[in-house]
Design the sequence.
């Protein structure tokens, strides 16, 4: 999955998965900004916004979730073919649906597991969705009444309960640089180059 420099003309996708309120969207936004500062054309796909725009007719059954993620993966694949970088933040709770997304885009696909304990995710939930799910007012809520299947072999794991978003973003940037998904300035090492983007 290491690119030659000539392959950088083709885009790639960074797929963020994790429990609701784990920090996926915030981290994807941070990566979008950092990559933009390097001059990369970036398309950001956020699960909530994407569902409102394209998957609003879908529910939260396993089948409907699969359709929503599949649709997003096809959008991402089309952007990749147009030499764009995609940051995609989707709960995508089942391994099968994430594997389908990988098959569609590999080797231009980086899976980032945004790992965070359920307890911390609930504490962060300003909308009260977890509380409503525990009260039975929201059905099929991932982590409460619906399962989340942790990735078995993601490219990157970031622990957002232990590190702040900037640190996690730097870790992802370092991976992208080390595996030649992105250029780094001059002869600067990939990790140092990533850190230079902190701002």
Sequence:
């Amino acid at each position: 999955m290491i690119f030659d420099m000539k392959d950088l003309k083709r885009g790639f996708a960074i797929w963020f998965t994790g429990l609701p309120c784990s920090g996926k969207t915030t981290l994807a936004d941070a990566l979008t900004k950092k990559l933009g500062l390097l001059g990369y054309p970036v398309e950001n796909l956020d699960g909530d916004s994407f569902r409102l725009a394209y998957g609003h007719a879908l529910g939260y059954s396993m089948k409907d979730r699969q359709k929503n993620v599949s649709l997003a993966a096809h959008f991402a694949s089309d952007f990749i073919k147009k030499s764009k970088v995609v940051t995609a933040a989707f709960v995508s709770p089942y391994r099968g649906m994430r594997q389908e997304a990988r098959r569609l885009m590999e080797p231009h696909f980086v899976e980032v597991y945004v790992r965070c304990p359920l307890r911390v995710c609930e504490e962060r939930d300003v909308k009260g969705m977890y509380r409503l799910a525990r009260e039975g007012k929201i059905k099929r809520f991932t982590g409460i009444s619906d399962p989340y299947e942790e990735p078995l072999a993601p490219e990157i794991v970031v622990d957002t309960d232990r590190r702040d978003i900037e640190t996690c973003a730097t870790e992802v940037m370092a991976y992208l640089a080390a595996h030649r998904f992105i250029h780094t300035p001059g002869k600067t090492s990939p990790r140092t180059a990533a850190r230079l983007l902190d701002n």
In short: The chain has one domain: 5-196.
